[in-house]
Amino acid sequence: MSAGNSAREAILGRVRSALAQTERVPVSSIPRDYRTERPTADLVGLFCERVADYRATVERVEPGELPAAIVAAARAAGARRVLAPAGVPQQWYEALSSEFGQVDDGTDIDTAGLERVDAVITTAVVGIAETGTIVLDHGPGQGRRAVTLVPDVHICVVRESQVADDVPAALRRLDPARPMTFISGPSATSDIELNRVEGVHGPRTLHVLVAPG
Length: 213
Known about the structure:
This is L-lactate dehydrogenase complex protein LldG. Pfam families: LUD_dom. Residues 114-210 form the LUD domain. By secondary structure, the chain is of the alpha/beta class. It has one domain: NagB/RpiA/CoA transferase-like (Rossmann fold). It is 28% helix and 20% strand. Strand 4 and strand 5 form a beta hairpin. The protein is elongated, with a radius of gyration of 25 Å.
């Protein structure tokens, strides 16, 4: 046996000896007391701050002000044709219809029709304070995924009760069987020289309205 092999066997022998004297602890018995809550003085305020960090527009409004705030956001974005998925409150439809005329609910619209939509107005399922992320599971009021990716403007209403402190807390509120879209600011990308281009993979403008409830 060469000197190299002899040294190797000696080292492995010591490892085997040490392992033999070590008590084996079942993986299931290892405590995993991870912290599940991170108290924040102003959770909703943190969410708004982080959403704004992504160059999105964020605005806190009272419930009675929501229809007017939605119309104002769409008007400020220069929208002419808007879409509000089936399931949003009737008051939103009425306010939008009085301003923009016919409002599509996205039920039968195809891709060509979506390309003619200037702004989409949706609800959300969760907001994440730590990351400023909005999560859609495409239930009532949120529409299918294409509805929130093709139009150039996305106006999203998030309720204060929907804001979770971090990603693990948000995931506990979500149904893993549903399709999910995580949105952190307007769609953006950059080239090798870090020139930022917005609106390549989704809406160029994201306007978040945060309301009690």
